[in-house]
Structure formats: C-alpha cells, structure tokens
Amino acid sequence: MVRLTGKRIIALVDEEFEDLELWYPVHRVREEGAEVHLAGEKKGKVYIGKYGVPAEAEYSFDELDSSQYDGILVPGGWAPDKLRRYPKVLELVKDMHADRKPIGQICHAGWVLISAKILDGVTVTSTPGIRDDMENAGAIWKDEAVVVDGHIISARRPPDLPPYGKAFCDALAEK
C-alpha cells in the first residue's frame, strides 16, 4: 500500500525517547509511502532511546516549517519532557493544530501537547501516569488503546502501537 505517497511527516526526537514509540510509527507511515523527517534540537546529532536505539536528527527544529508537512509524530519516553521546552517544537505543534493536520502522540508525549496548550476539551489517552496532567490541561482522558479526536491521535503505550499506527495513517490518508 502506498496511500500516503507525497505526504511529509515530522518525527520529533530527543534523548531517551521510547524506542518503539518512535520507530514503529515512523516505519508504519513509511510503509505506506510517506516521507518522514527526524527532527531534533541539533541537525546531525544522534539521540539515543531509552533502550539504546539511535536516531539521527536529519533536521533541526528551527529548519522546519509546518506548512511544508502533513503531520507530526511525538514519541513517548522521557524525551517529551525535554521536547516541550523548545519554543520551536511548541510552535510546530500549535501550527499543526491550527491547520488540523494529524498530530500523533503516545505515552508521555501528551506533555508536549499540554505545553502547546491545545488539549482543552480534546478527548485523549496517554500513559496513566500523566492522566492528571492531561485532565488538568482540560483534556477528557480515556483508558483506551487509541483515541482519535479529530486530527489528534493518541495512544497509551507500546502494546497499543498497531492500532495507533493504523489510526495515524488513516488520519493522514483522509487529510
């Protein structure tokens, strides 16, 4: 299947991303024909996941323009606590939200959406560990494998990756 040919996706990276939560969705959208660009604070830097899997940033956050992309993937792990501190990351997420482009977030990635202030009234899921954070940001939290609320696709943790990957690809195909 190549239903996503011509689609361009940003995948955010920083130290201690959850390895599967980055690479599974990246490979999933690539399988369907999308082009994925890994972006970190520093272009060319190799970031190491929680379990030792590397990811090299092909672009720095500052090089990216959300108007040139069709969606964004935010991995979990401990990286979201770092990612949400970069103004450019928050700008990219806010711009994607304003344009109703698919935003994929899994596990602790909800922290980035919280800091972007885009969750008020949005139905989501996440790792149960940040449920209070999500609800305090105005989100409606559900304990489900995947929750799709418009263009925001959320999942809890690695066992939920298959339905999460499909839901994100479906959202991209519909956009």
TrEMBL record:
Pfam families with a match to the protein in the record: DJ-1_PfpI
Location of the DJ-1/PfpI domain: 7-168
Keyword Protein biosynthesis set for record: no
Keyword Lipoprotein tagged: no
Keywords attached to this entry: Glutamine amidotransferase
PANTHER family cross-referenced by the UniProt entry: DJ-1 PROTEIN (PTHR42733), DJ-1_PFPI DOMAIN-CONTAINING PROTEIN (PTHR42733:SF13)
Family: Belongs to the peptidase C56 family.
Protein name: Type 1 glutamine amidotransferase domain-containing protein
Organism per entry: Paenibacillus illinoisensis
Lineage: Bacteria, Bacillati, Bacillota, Bacilli, Bacillales
